[in-house]
Automatic annotation (TrEMBL):
<dbReference type="GO" id="GO:0020037">
    <property type="term" value="F:heme binding"/>
</dbReference>
<keyword id="KW-0560">Oxidoreductase</keyword>
<keyword id="KW-0503">Monooxygenase</keyword>
<dbReference type="GO" id="GO:0005506">
    <property type="term" value="F:iron ion binding"/>
</dbReference>
<comment type="similarity">
    <text>Belongs to the cytochrome P450 family.</text>
</comment>
<keyword id="KW-0408">Iron</keyword>
<dbReference type="GO" id="GO:0006805">
    <property type="term" value="P:xenobiotic metabolic process"/>
</dbReference>
<dbReference type="GO" id="GO:0006082">
    <property type="term" value="P:organic acid metabolic process"/>
</dbReference>
<protein>
    <submittedName>
        <fullName>Cytochrome P450 18a1</fullName>
    </submittedName>
</protein>
<dbReference type="GO" id="GO:0008395">
    <property type="term" value="F:steroid hydroxylase activity"/>
</dbReference>
<dbReference type="InterPro" id="IPR036396">
    <property type="entry name" value="Cyt_P450_sf"/>
</dbReference>
<dbReference type="InterPro" id="IPR001128">
    <property type="entry name" value="Cyt_P450"/>
</dbReference>
<dbReference type="InterPro" id="IPR050182">
    <property type="entry name" value="Cytochrome_P450_fam2"/>
</dbReference>
<dbReference type="GO" id="GO:0005737">
    <property type="term" value="C:cytoplasm"/>
</dbReference>
<dbReference type="InterPro" id="IPR002401">
    <property type="entry name" value="Cyt_P450_E_grp-I"/>
</dbReference>
<dbReference type="Pfam" id="PF00067">
    <property type="entry name" value="p450"/>
</dbReference>
<dbReference type="GO" id="GO:0016712">
    <property type="term" value="F:oxidoreductase activity, acting on paired donors, with incorporation or reduction of molecular oxygen, reduced flavin or flavoprotein as one donor, and incorporation of one atom of oxygen"/>
</dbReference>
Length: 275
């Protein structure tokens, strides 16, 4: 009662069996039939789908729609970082990251813009030099562009720069790609939780958790190294800004409100790196 219109589904599975791998194309078809706001039963989850950007912007003006589903896959990841946290924690982390990214040059106005331009030009120079070495050969640009873009972000976040052949960089990209592949394979468990206990799904969930821990171990190393050289009068990157914010929050008695738990700093780094 009071719900927008939508398609009928099958018992237990709902409309899941009709969606297929490319959800967005099926949702576009449903939007044309039922309107820009419709609902569908996906497994055990009654889902409302918004396909109009104006309605989406209006919905996200308030915090009513910032919650995260308590699903098996998100439980595996934990409520860390901007993507998986919610409520006041999400609000504070979003404010922090947005403010600090602007401070370190991610802006179109002011003197800080030059900082970003310098970082980008450094990577452009390296990119052109690498391509020049293969001037007479066919070249896959994706691997060069990937490391160039990542280096701009990683420099701002944690003062880390990777080379194209860096095994750690290759490993991280592989972990991210495999994570997305595994999510795609078992995303149905978020709608029908009972099937998460099937052997194949258990193995995939365990692999996702293992990969996540491997990434977190690296972020832990980065944070620990920054702690050793931290100087509040010389904030070098987002990790330094994070450590500085933690100290201020502790002094004001609001550390639990800001970054509640030891894994939220690593989750914040993971959000930015994966993006």
């Amino acid at each position: 009662k009071g719900l927008p219109p939508g398609p009928w589904g099958l018992p237990v599975f709902g409309y899941l069996t009709f969606i297929g791998r490319e959800k967005h194309t099926q949702y576009m078809k449903l939007a044309k039939k039922y309107g820009s706001l419709f609902c569908a039963k996906l497994g055990a989850q009654l889902t409302v789908v918004i396909s109009d950007y104006k309605i989406i912007r209006e919905a996200f003006k308030t915090e009513d729609f910032t919650g995260r589903p308590h699903s098996p896959l998100l439980k595996t990841l934990g409520g860390f970082g901007i993507i998986n946290s919610e409520g006041q924690l999400w609000k504070e982390q979003r404010r922090f990251l947005h403010e600090k990214l602007r401070h370190f040059g991610m802006t179109v106005l002011g003197n800080k813009k030059q900082l970003m331009e310098n970082r980008i030009m450094t990577e452009v120079t390296e990119l052109l030099a690498a391509l020049n070495d293969e001037a007479n050969e066919s070249t896959d640009l994706s691997k060069y562009l990937s490391v160039s873009v990542s280096n701009v972000i990683c420099n701002i976040i944690m003062s880390v720069r990777f080379s194209l052949e860096d095994p750690k960089f290759k490993r991280f990209n592989w972990l991210i790609e495999e994570g997305m592949r595994l999510f795609g394979e078992i995303h149905t468990i978020d709608y029908i939780p009972q099937i998460q206990y099937l052997p194949g799904n258990i193995n995939a969930k365990n692999k996702i958790a293992k990969n996540r821990q491997e990434m977190f171990d690296f972020y832990r190393e980065v944070i620990d190294e920054h702690k050793k050289t931290f100087d509040a009068s010389n904030i070098r990157d987002i990790v330094d800004a994070y450590l500085d914010e933690i100290e201020k929050a502790k002094a004001e008695g609001r550390d639990n409100e800001l970054f509640d738990g030891k894994d939220h700093g690593k989750g914040l780094l993971g959000t930015a790196f994966a993006a």
